[in-house]
Amino acid sequence: MATKAFQRTYTQLQAITKATVSLNARGVSNDELATVDGRLAQVVKTKGDNVTLQVFSGTEGVPTNAEVSFHGAPPTLHVSEQLSGRFFNAYGEPIDGGPAVEGEEREVGGPSVNPYKRRQPSELIPTGIAGIDLNNTLVSGQKIPFFADPDQPYNKVMADVALRADVDKIILGGMGLTNDDYLFFRHEFESAGALDKIVSFVNTTEEPPVERLLIPDMALCAAEYFAVDKNEKVLVLLTDMTLYADALSIVSNRMDQIPSKDAMPGSLYSDLAKIYEKAVQLPDGGSITIIAVTTLNDGDITHAIPDNTGYITEGQLFLRADPDTGKVIVDPFRSLSRLKQLVQGKKTREDHSQVMNAGVRLYADAQNAKTKLENGFDLSDYDLRCLDYAKEYATRLLSIDVNITVEQMLDTAWEIFAKYFSPAETGIKQALVDKYWKKKEE
Amino acid sequence: MSTKGKVTGIVSNLVTVAVDGPVAENELCYITVAGEQLLAEVIKVAGDKASVQVYESTRGLKNGDDVEFLGRMLEVSLGPGLLSGIYDGLQNNLRTMTGVFLKRGEYTDPLDREALWDFTPLAQPGDKVVAADWLGEVKEGWLPHKIMVPFSFKGEYTVKSVAPAGSYTVDQQIAVLTGSDGEDVPVTMVQRWPVKVAVRAYKEKPRPSRIMETGVRCIDTFNPIAEGGTGFIPGPFGCGKTVLQHAIAKQGDADVIVMAACGERANEVVEIFTEFPQLVDPHTGRKLMERTTIICNTSNMPVAAREASVYTAMTICEYYRAMGLKCMLLADSTSRWAQALREMSNRMEELPGQDAFPVDLSAIISNFYSRAGQVVLNNGQTGAVTFIGTVSPAGGNLKEPVTESTKKAARCFYALEQSRADQKRYPAVNPIDSYSKYLEYPEIVSYLDESVEKGWVGKVLRAKNYIRRGREMADQINILGDDGVPMSYHEAFWKSELIDFAFLQQDAFDAIDALTPLERQKFMLDLILALCDRPFEFDNFDECRNFFKELINTLRQMNYTEFKGEKFNAYEQQLRQYLA
């Protein structure tokens, strides 16, 4: 950490917890950074002369006579085109062996965009995955998390989505990534030859949890530079936001705050919203799209973290293993993209929303048939056809290993409909049936 | 001389200030930091220490920073030009702010001080007037905007002079009033009012006695909301809260709509100000934006101003109500406001109530809901503020403090249900759990007797009964299997499905189906009930199901066609054959 001349240093800590220290100091400003025993810390509370600092790397081994110096400014990031292709830690320091980035120094966690200056998102982000493009279409400027149990391959899906998306920059914010996952992302980006459009901020499980709190702000500060200053389309990947929230609860706990639901701080909603609301479609063409990962505990979306997330984000993509086909699918019932109607049928073919609805409705009928079967009731001919349909629909469209264009998805859906159902059973508008229905080859 | 102070402690947006003189609860102050002035509000005083919540980011604030108290509470400016405005929670005009990002410490004027308004006097010199009496009128777009004796004036005044008809800016003097003490007071078109104080400048507040039409069938027919009534919509995320609220905002029969986006997504506000200027108000034929004001404190804007936003919105409604207008306030969502209260209470280290919410949460909510209502003005005319709030219960569980507190305060309850949303039965309002207390008001019953038909409420209750019975039968069928129950069970189940699919479900994105006037609702309910009342004889449950599926399909097609148009009539003929 760079220290400046004329900095006042202190050497007497009043209190130490696992995540915070406090001491008597004067002239300290809120949110400013400090160095405690060589570690980075941030002012979170002042009471009279008593200042509480959150020490990002934890306080193990910090003695009461540790040297404390204040930097006089909140966390910052140097921004310029030099960010591209680089890997940084939570403090914005290079971890790839390269030189420090030169450029304007900006405070992270800056103000919000004036809502009136926003534009309505309207550009499709194709991912090749039908469970997303067909049923839960993504739009630039959207914020949406994957809800997934820890055993789901969410990081792989996210890397695929990022590399296929037609964007100018991809910014990865990795929080509590295992070293293996970090190397995975690095390898994926390198082998795709896309490194020059990727910026990564990474905190691994080997590093202290409280450091994670800086990752989203760093990643979004870089994203705002490219989207606002350079009018670029930026995709931000944040994984795993559950670990971020856990870090929040550690700090609030150490500060003796009263916990609300699930031991989370009462400000969880605002804390998460401050991050997700950075997603924006700007008037001059730039945009920030956020795709995040929120890991669940056994699919429980009523836990405070996914629950608050769901109220903030514009939908969620729910990954689950499908026992009937052995594939990981994007669950069509619990997933939702709130912005899909802004592009479906407008930027895609006219039959998009009707095909999507029919596909999901028939899949729901198959679920009912399955329940009937499990309860030992007789199945009708329609039920049996639904079950067959469901298997093919899951394999060819819902599965995350699909990679086709939206047009191909629609054609595939029509083909499967014709294989198992009559036009009336799909309930699709007659005009569209006349135009797209695949005649069975006799 | 105003009270001054120095910052002595900071935790996030809660700042402690040592003061050198008197301060009032809820008094505002400016904290000066690096040349910027940050607005803050006193929320607690202990000795010479005042705790203030800052409406902005407190980054860079230092102990010892100067604080200056303003001697007033948070106020809004009331005058012509508020309609179609887009304000933040403190009533700063977001349109006139510079830069893409919100700049800390930038406060903009809510009213256009240059604009000229065509003023017509209504009062005469010599008239005796009290607060909220009308002195004159300007045209705010299509709306006759009354210029009133400011709400803060106490006692009786005599009009000394009123400006002649002509064009004036809001700051020009349009009347001079003489108080009982003989002192002359000038009046302009603008007045200021503290947002946390209810405007009580009216003669009386009778019980609501009319229905406010929304065009949404599951509301207007099944659980109607009254003009000047209160209601709330709780629901887990993804159940269509926002779509339902926007439908009410688009179609509600009100002169003025104020939408408070309180701690919600910014893109939803963008949707309103992108689409409303294009959409047409079904009641007046004008653009929807002309009757709409947006107060937005989105989830990433400073938390303390979230609380202010709902009060600001309510005060604007009360202002227009005093002009004899029907106003509606939609707040999305009051849970975020409650969470903002929780954050502050937490930082002040108050003893927490349930789920760490402040213990007076319930009192705060019911006090706010009580500001809605129909009023009789001093001149005998009536005005109303109808209030509908949404609630975002944690984990979708309705047994949580905000939902429970709101249930005590609001008279209508529209329970959005996850399982209905999963089945895409929109609007996902549960027909059994939801209620409208207004159906029990004799005033409302007799109003419906006259405006719809005699005995209407009885008919509605009968339809609800069909639904209730159908649900019970569905449970039996699920347990015993299709073959294990008598045919009458299937029939009862399908009758409830008929009412559900053909009446309760409504396509908010279809131009015709989205808005059903009460006359059409009555026509459809009569038709559907006639079908339900008819005895059927089916040989097997397949026949029963197919028969009702066809009925449902025909009725749904009917919902998509123009009322009493050619196609509509053809469908009706088809259905009448079963009633012969």
Report what the structure shows:
The complex is a heterodimer of chains A (442) and B (580). Chain A is of the alpha/beta class. In chain A, 32% of the residues lie in helices and 23% in strands. Chain A has twelve helices and 21 strands. Chain A has helices spanning 130-133, 154-164, 179-191, 215-229, 241-254, 268-276, 304-312, 352-374, 381-398, 406-420, 423-426, 430-436; strands spanning 9-10, 13-16, 20-24, 33-36, 39-47, 50-55, 68-70, 76-79, 87-88, 104-107, 124-125, 138-139, 143-148, 169-177, 198-204, 233-239, 280-281, 287-295, 315-322, 327-330, 336-337. In chain A, the strands form four sheets. In chain A, strands 9, 13, 14, 15, 16, 17, 18, 19, 20 and 21 form a ten-stranded mixed sheet that branches. A seven-stranded antiparallel sheet of chain A has the order 1-7-4-5-6-3-2, with no helix packed on it. Chain A has a two-stranded antiparallel sheet with strand order 8-10. In chain A, α8 (352-374) crosses α10 (406-420) and α9 (381-398) runs antiparallel to α10. The radius of gyration of chain A is 25 Å and the shape is elongated. The model of chain A has no long low-confidence stretch (mean pLDDT 91). Chain B is of the alpha+beta class and 580 residues long. Chain B has helices at residues 217-222, 241-251, 266-275, 304-321, 334-347, 361-369, 401-409, 418-422, 442-451, 456-480, 487-504, 518-533, 541-559, 566-576, and strands at residues 4-11, 14-19, 27-33, 36-46, 49-54, 66-73, 75-78, 86-87, 117-121, 128-129, 134-140, 143-148, 157-162, 166-168, 175-178, 184-187, 191-194, 230-234, 256-262, 292-297, 326-332, 373-376, 382-391, 412-413, 435-436. In chain B, the strands form five sheets. In chain B, strands 8, 18, 19, 20, 21, 22, 23, 24 and 25 form a nine-stranded mixed sheet that branches. A six-stranded antiparallel barrel of chain B has the order 1-2-5-4-3-6. In chain B, α6 runs parallel beside α7 and α11 packs parallel to α13 (541-559). At the A-B interface, β5, α6, α7 and α8 of A face β1, α3 and α5 of B.
